[in-house]
Design brief:
Length: 331
């Protein structure tokens, strides 16, 4: 069995590729190893994947080279595409909007158009909990059928655009499609621009961490292995007899955690205290995200369950080992 994974050197892409390789799939990975964050980390993730003979890697930008994209799908006779490559991060979208249009709109168009032309049978792509935007004022739990037309930032707007473009392609051209709304994924090989990474680094280096909205922030933190299990099950599930199947799914734990509590658990995991600076809510940020995961449970009979304490321990252990931290001597 074989599939194409874009963003394979990314956080979720690497862990998902690894899971498929361990199940003896051939994984065709694409990533442009861009410098949005530490390239070394992306190269190291990719090197882990290269240990598998059945991993074939292509380094190029999907927003710039659609011919190459098509030739790869053709050459490897790809029938399943898992599209994870994107410009992520809410705050960065305020400063670099063009990167979102290029990677998340043009890049997305190139991949879905290639899927249409080359008759890919299953297209699974990453969306985001950020599409729920201003909904948190109305509801605590976000369900897939809730309104998602009030994004709070351009990143969310590009992800919502992906969902509607994918709907049109699925309906018109018979592509079985599933869009995955991820909720704050964390764990080993994570993203340096995300809170768990930033907090841990600062605590270990005895630097001050910035806490926005005076700590009144809530996130549905979801452990990477749970996310990967869900992706694998969705990919392997027979979708339907209909060819134009289309579904959006929340991929979360279904429980929200207050940021201050998250930091407390992290502090007790590494037995160190943080220094904090309290700041107002940042423009474009959501205060709360919490997934209703009934649909996910029904669809794949699986519930992400990893407790924060357990997931954070694995994340901290990985981080300290990867960056060779010696807690005693860091200053
Ligand atoms: N991690 C989360 O909590 C989270 C939450 C919601 C949504 N998502 C979405 O899930 C997907 C994966 O996220 P992640 O956390 O692994 O991010 P990531 O940044 O670690 O991975 C994305 C990868 O895609 C690559 N990439 C970006 N643009 C590309 C292009 N034009 N051509 C080729 N490669 C390109 C990057 O180099 C990177 O390695 C993204 O679509 C993201 O928006 C993630």
């Amino acid at each position: 069995m074989k599939l194409l994974i874009t963003g394979s050197a990314g956080f979720i892409g690497m862990s998902t590729s690894m899971a498929f390789l361990k199940q003896n799939y051939t994984v065709i990975g694409i990533d442009n190893l861009n410098s949005f964050y530490d390239i070394r980390l992306k190269i190291d993730r990719n090197n882990e994947l290269k240990k598998f003979k059945k991993y074939k890697f292509y380094n190029f930008d999907i927003s710039k080279n659609d011919e190459k994209l098509k030739s790869i799908i053709k050459k490897h006779k790809i029938k399943i595409v898992l599209h994870l490559a994107a410009q992520a991060n809410v705050r960065y979208s305020l400063k670099n909007p063009r990167a979102y249009i290029r990677n998340n709109i043009v890049g997305f168009y190139n991949i879905i158009e290639a899927c249409r032309e080359l008759k890919v049978e299953k297209f699974i792509f990453a969306s985001s909990s950020s599409v729920y935007g201003k909904n948190y004022k109305v509801k605590n739990f976000f369900s897939e059928n809730d309104k998602t037309d009030t994004p709070k930032n351009l990143y969310a707007a590009t992800k919502k655009s992906n969902e509607v473009i994918a709907y049109a392609y699925s309906d018109l051209f018979n592509i079985n499609t599933v869009g995955l709304r991820f909720f704050t994924v964390y764990g080993p090989w994570g993203r340096p621009d995300m809170a768990p990474f930033i907090f841990l680094k600062s605590i270990l280096e005895r630097k001050t961490i910035k806490i926005f909205n005076s700590g009144k922030m809530f996130r549905d933190f979801t452990y990477i292995d749970d996310v990967v299990n869900a992706i694998v099950k969705i990919t392997q599930r027979r979708l339907t007899n209909k060819k134009n199947f289309y579904k959006i799914l929340n991929i979360g734990r279904g429980k929200s955690e207050n940021l201050m509590n998250f930091i407390k658990i992290m502090e007790s995991t590494i037995d160190m205290k943080s220094k904090k600076k309290y700041l107002p809510l940042q423009m474009g940020d959501m205060v709360l995200t919490q997934a209703n995961i009934k649909e996910l449970k029904k669809f794949i009979k699986y519930t992400p369950r990893t407790e924060l304490k357990v997931g954070l321990k694995k994340f901290c252990d990985w981080y300290i080992d990867y960056y060779k931290y010696n807690k005693k001597f860091s200053s």
